[in-house]
Design goal:
Elements lengths: L2 H36 L18 H14 L9 H12 L9
Length: 100
């Protein structure tokens, strides 16, 4: 086998090894994200210390958009916790976010 061909085979094997390492890193990262989501890091809005405060401007804006998308009425008196729950509810019904 000539030197050029051996170098090509070596390069291919190296790139395959790099691809496998990158794939395993991606899989570990995805698994870590899933485990964190399942481990209760996302607290129930009813348990938030600031849940009884007025909704944030970001929540307000997003909720207004979701209400328009779903034809629901917007309630501007919601607390942070209530707004979070309402956002979760409307996200599931929004045609913009449907995964059909």
């Amino acid at each position: 086998m000539n030197a050029g061909l051996r170098g090509g085979i070596r390069a291919l094997q190296f790139s395959e090894r790099v691809a496998l390492v990158l794939l395993s890193i991606r899989l570990m990262k995805n698994r870590s994200i899933e485990e964190n989501a399942d481990s209760g890091l996302q607290r129930d809005p009813d348990e938030w210390k600031t849940g009884d405060e007025p909704m944030t401007p970001a929540q307000r804006s997003y909720l207004e958009t979701l209400c328009r998308d779903t034809g629901e009425n917007f309630d501007d008196a919601l607390t942070k916790a209530e707004a979070s729950k309402r956002i979760d509810e409307l996200r599931g019904r929004s045609p913009r976010l449907s995964q059909d």
